[in-house]
Amino acid sequence: MPERTTAIPGPPGAEGGVQDLGVALLVSAARFTRWAGRAADAPMPQALWRALSQLEELGPLRVSALAALDRTSQPTATALVARLVEHGWAVRAPDPEDGRAVLVDVSDAGRRQLHEQRAAAARALAPSLGSLAADERADLARGVAVLDRLVAREAPAG
Amino acid sequence: MPERTTAIPGPPGAEGGVQDLGVALLVSAARFTRWAGRAADAPMPQALWRALSQLEELGPLRVSALAALDRTSQPTATALVARLVEHGWAVRAPDPEDGRAVLVDVSDAGRRQLHEQRAAAARALAPSLGSLAADERADLARGVAVLDRLVAREAPAG
DNA sequence: GTGACATGCATAGCCTTCCTATGTAACCTG
DNA sequence: CAGGTTACATAGGAAGGCTATGCATGTCAC
Q1: What region holds the HTH marR-type domain (chains A, B) (predicted)?
Q2: Closest alpha carbon to B27 in A144, A105, A66
Q3: CB-count exposure of residue B32 (10 Å: 0-12, 13-18, 19+)
């Protein structure tokens, strides 16, 4: 094999960095997400799991707020909510303060489902993560923390 | 704000870490991928960009090898290759050693497109990454490195 | 050789997940 | 209460992915 030079020149030494870091991060995150999504045979499709997580984290939400948080269009959020409600994982209630708005929240069944989903994901990933050295896991955890802050910072004000 | 407790509870038991790390990683990676994918108005759809990157990194590949690397089904890889070829970003050649097989490789146009894609992604992410502190970026870079190793380790033998 | 199985890719048909554009009902402002 | 704005729903369509299946080529036992 001709050993092509790598397509993603990592930030080996100097700064080189912000540009490469962004691309490397995007590539790695995308590949990992894809891999993990297939490895874990999910009880719930990704889109629903994402939406349901947002609801659990951030309480009752309007459809449009959910759309903003999930970075989807409002129609997509409407559809997601409809499917969640069909499954019994979320409930819709009129907003007492605004007749146009709808407040969506997780149901108890949704919470249970979410825990199961997370457990399945954890099971699927455990072997791989377990094969890492302790300091690698620590690096990964710090990276995740930064990533969380990054994404949160870009989040809509709500 | 009611301050709901975090959505990602840990297993009460012993080490606590690996499980949570996996779920947190998956959640963050998925959210980041989704956010970045929308923020960068991509000249090329994600699926094509993924496939093309693999081709550039790993040289001429059989369709089935590409499928394995990209964690897609073989029919999906066939479709991706067809679209890449349509755009002129990849070329197909018969495998001289196996009449059934096809060797796919990036074209020069594909390489140019890929560089442009990466530049666009870098531009889109630069402001966010730039807003991080230097040590945060370093943490992130280390995390990405670990993630790369993790995904690579799970990759098919090829 | 030649029949039987294995392998590599293509095709068919379907589902999910998104999008934009547009409609409708409820709010607000003068 | 007319006109604009806001919040959600609906319509229609594209992309990306899957399983199942078909077809051609290799491989191996005999």
Answers
A1: 18-152
A2: A144
A3: buried
Name the DSSP letter for residue B96.
T
Instruction: Name the 3-class secondary structure at B132.
Output: coil
Q: Can you give the pTM of this predicted structure?
A: 0.84
pLDDT in tens, A23-80: 899 989 998 988 888 777 677 888 899 999 999 999 799 999 999 999 999 999 999 9
B33 touches strand D (CB under 7 A): no
Strands annotated E in A53-122: 61-62, 90-95, 98-106
Q: A interface mutation test: which of B23, B111, B125, B140 has the most A CBs within 10 A? A: B140
First to last CA, chain A: 52
- Tell me how far apart the alpha carbons of residues B84 and B49 are, in angstroms, rounded to a whole number: 9
Q: What is the 3-state secondary structure (H, E, C) of A8-62?
A: CCCCCCCCCHHHHHHHHHHHHHHHHHHHHHHHCCCCCCHHHHHHHHHHHHHCCEE
Nearest residue, CB atoms, B126 vs list A19, A125, A141? A19
DSSP H or E segment with residue B44: none
CA distances from A111 to A11, A87, A118, B82 (A): 41, 12, 11, 42
- The dihedrals phi and psi of B131, each to the nearest 5 degrees, come to -80, -5
Closest CA to A72 of A95, A83, B84: A83
Which residues of chain B neighbour A4 with C-beta distances below 8 Å?
Answer: 56-59
Neighbours of A33 (CB within 10 A): 22
